[in-house]
Amino acid sequence: MDERRAVRISKYLAKHLRHRPERIGLTLDHAGWADVGELLAACAAHGFPLTRAELEHVVAVNDKQRYVLDGDRIRAAQGHSVQVDLGLSPASPPDLLYHGTVGRSVAAILRGGLLPMGRHAVHLSPDRETARRVGARRGEPVVLVVEAGRMAADGHEFRVSENGVWLTERVPPEYLRE
């Protein structure tokens, strides 16, 4: 499969497993899982046919490991705007985590903190390079440092998704620095 096809499939999956499953007639269970057969049928019925082999390839090679395939079930690892319970237990974060953004957003973030912005949680990266790649999707990246250890000590809760993305409800500005 060529890279363009893999990217198109990944974006299509993100849209329908994270944000708009109803748009193609797909139903996610309470934990965000969809039946693979139903997903493939829904994709085909809505003009985007793909094979099980293509699906497995995209799940395996996705650089951010956005999807989890478990037998005949698939779900997005995190990033949902639809209500799901990923079943992630609270976890102790490292002292520092990172958030990638773009320069035009920095002043507002440092003033008001990081908010989920339509998702269920703020997404934080375990290393600067990952955060830089996340920020680069929308322009010249800026990496913010999150004092996650201090946040946790002050009572903020963290969870870590299956693909290593750290999640928290919000990051108040006093825990952020450039």
Automatic annotation (TrEMBL):
Keyword NAD: yes
Pfam families found in the cross-reference section: PTS_2-RNA
Family, similarity comment: Belongs to the KptA/TPT1 family.
Keyword Transferase among record annotations: yes
Membrane-spanning ranges: none
Protein name: Probable RNA 2'-phosphotransferase
Alphabetically ordered keywords of this record: NAD, Transferase
Listed GO MF terms: NAD+ poly-ADP-ribosyltransferase activity; tRNA 2'-phosphotransferase activity
Primary role: Removes the 2'-phosphate from RNA via an intermediate in which the phosphate is ADP-ribosylated by NAD followed by a presumed transesterification to release the RNA and generate ADP-ribose 1''-2''-cyclic phosphate (APPR>P). May function as an ADP-ribosylase.
A biological process from GO: tRNA splicing, via endonucleolytic cleavage and ligation
Enzyme superclass (EC): transferase
Domain of life, source organism: Bacteria
InterPro entries: Ptrans_KptA/Tpt1 (IPR002745), RNA_2'-PTrans_C (IPR042081), RNA_2'-PTrans_KptA (IPR022928), RNA_2'-PTrans_N (IPR042080)
EC number: 2.7.1.-
